[in-house]
Design goal:
The chain has 4 helices and 3 strands; from the N terminus they run H-H-E-E-E-H-H. By secondary structure, the protein is α+β, with helices and mostly antiparallel strands. The protein has a 3-stranded antiparallel sheet with strand order 1-2-3. The longest helix has 11 residues.
């Protein structure tokens, strides 16, 4: 997260301690995708009650992909991995996939 912020000339107050606190929160998680032995992207999410669908919803809070690896499927791999590990009733993430915003490409592995 720090690397991505610096790349965009931004600042983030996130620390390792805050990441640990975030991960300790029920329903919160982080997925990381790698390419050539380095982190290529990160997706943070939380699963919470969804009022409209009366079922759990997965909220994607942050989706980052290194600028030199964008367009190679890292973001798609992260979203698809989160979707494949979600309950069928997780409407929010299913709607994101249905929009077809992310195309399938090869080159990144989980």
């Amino acid at each position: 997260i720090q690397e991505a912020a610096a790349e965009d000339k931004e600042h983030t107050p996130v620390t390792q301690a805050y990441v640990a606190e975030y991960l300790a929160s029920p329903g919160s998680g982080i997925l990381i995708v790698g390419s050539q032995g380095r982190a290529a992207g990160l997706l943070s999410y939380s699963i919470r009650p969804g009022l409209f669908h009366a079922a759990p919803s997965c909220l994607i809070e942050l989706l980052l992909v290194r600028s030199d690896l964008r367009g190679r499927g890292a973001g798609s791999a992260l979203v698809k991995n989160r979707q494949s590990n979600s309950p069928r009733s997780t409407a929010s993430i299913n709607n994101l996939i249905a929009w077809d915003l992310i195309s399938e490409r090869k080159g990144c592995t989980l």
